[in-house]
Predict the 3D structure of the following.
Amino acid sequence: MNEALKRIVRVFFTYSVRTISLLLAVSAISFVLVNASPINPVQQYIIGFGTAVSPQQRAEIEDYWGVNEPPIERYFSWLSEVLHGNLGESALYRRPVAAVIGERFWNSLALMLCAWLLSGVIGFGLGCVMGMYQDRWADKIIKKCCYILSSVPTFWLGLVFLLVFSVWLKWFPIGFSAPIGVRGEDVTFGQRLYHLILPAFTLSLASFSNIALHTRQKLIDVFNSEYVLFARARGEGKWTILCRHGLRNILFPALTLQFASFAELFGGSVMAENVFSYPGLGSAVSAAGLNGDVPLLLGITLFSALFVSAGNMIANLLYGVINPQVRAFAEAGRNGGFV
Amino acid sequence: MEQKNGTLLEIHDLSVSFRMYDYDEFRHNDIRRRLKQTDLQVISDLHLIVNPGEIVAVAGSSGSGKSLLASAILGILPDNATVRGHLHYKGEEMTAARQRQLRGTEIALVPQSVAFLDPLMKVGAQVDGHRRPRQTERRKSLFQRFGLPDKTPQLYPFQLSGGMARRVLVSTALISEAQLIIADEPTPGMSLNQALEALRLFREMADEGKAVILITHDIDLAIEFADRVAVFYAGTTVETAFASDFKSGPDALRHPYSKALWNALPQNGFLPIEGFQPYAGNLPGGCLFAPRCPYKTPQCIAEIPPIREVRGGEVRCQHEMNF
């Protein structure tokens, strides 16, 4: 037990160091990029006021914000504020960036979680079907669909779905996360879910083909393996082999892939949220980008880096926890010998 | 097809070929037309009879198609394989459906290596198999008999040593009620004692009226434990001899290749013969051994010799001879 605890502490420490260095690198690079871009945060801030500002006032604002200091100094003063928990104030929403992210993250999380589960289940299921019926018509049709869906951009798919399901069939609302004209506190869970379905479905369709095609190939590899040949020699049928050996051997790679897909998921949510006017982080980041809201942009960049690296970390940890081979190698490494 | 009474397994004129696509870079501009479909014959006119109560060793060098013979009997060849000839189990023609019924119940395979075990499934559950009820008690006594440590059922295949893996693989066949066991190189990696224990178990099963096909390239071991030895060359059986014939020496053997094999054994002079075994894809037209045979005649090259019974064994050779 003590050994297990030590291992957990060591793994936690390793990943903490990795995540912190990643966040530092991301913050530095995005700061340099914003600095090099033509966005003028002061100009955006002033526009936000809605009133005219004299050159003198403007100079005072610039002085107050430290615009004229060297970039290195500005970076470190921003960084020290961030480390103290202050991400700055959004010029667009006139509220602290942390509050904006906190509020919108829950909307995005609901959307991404639904899409993630949907794409995982659909992808794994269809991958199994394709693998079982390799080169038969079911496989060929689903495979073509996967190729098409993985080539189609998310926003276009979203537009088509809006047109078909919202405009023509009127099955789903045209956008937002709640009905128009209803007060925030009166929105029911059912209404939220109803508004979530179409964007979540769009997002999952854009990402399930990856996992489906990987699962298909992995299952075909398993069926060509010697241990499946032996299973057949012992009289196991096709479906027994799938349940006894197939699922066991393709589940780990599929899970890893699924957790490592957080990056694509986040990228896809930017598109989906914009098309469906869904008030999440994705639509906030594009609004921040288009309106030159530097604090919000940097805040969301850092947050999404954290989110994606958390996904990758879970994938790595999960692999070590469930795969007996990885687990045994880790133990062997610690004991300085094998088994 | 002529049937003998009371045989467990009869194989007559079995040929297995694989449909392959040859790639010829210079033939056509169109990639589809560059691929030429060819049939690669890996087993040719094979003849083998297995009686209840005996161990038949199938001995031959690597690449002679020994493992494919096991797959052909079980009906688990890949989809691109074509099988011709006749397989009979207990006098009954083995159709694909019959083979499906027999696999794992009447006929069991002992595979070659640990790669034939599911890497992510614990050994105990794998040996027990998919059939209900689970044969856990039987497995425990088998493991004990083989001297496998108590923790073995909880291990994953990659945690087994070579010798442990072999014993586990043998257990997978012995746990079934199979009448016929096809053991594909079951002993390499085992210590001598373990190998002897495994072979003793096979012997016991044979003495109970079951039968074992022992695929091996260890002739000495085959002679020691088998009743008969089928000598395999280039995908066919050139001779089936009694194990005692190999002990008696080359004069008791019936085929020039068997005699050459005997002379090539370390204890018998270590004498090699010229040439090498022809591989699938460039098999000679007549007798498969003719190109290397010191006694070949134009007839040997022209046609495939028939199977003949000589001194209780079988031989595929033209010559009515004692060389």
Q: What stands out?
A: Chain A has a mean pLDDT of 84.
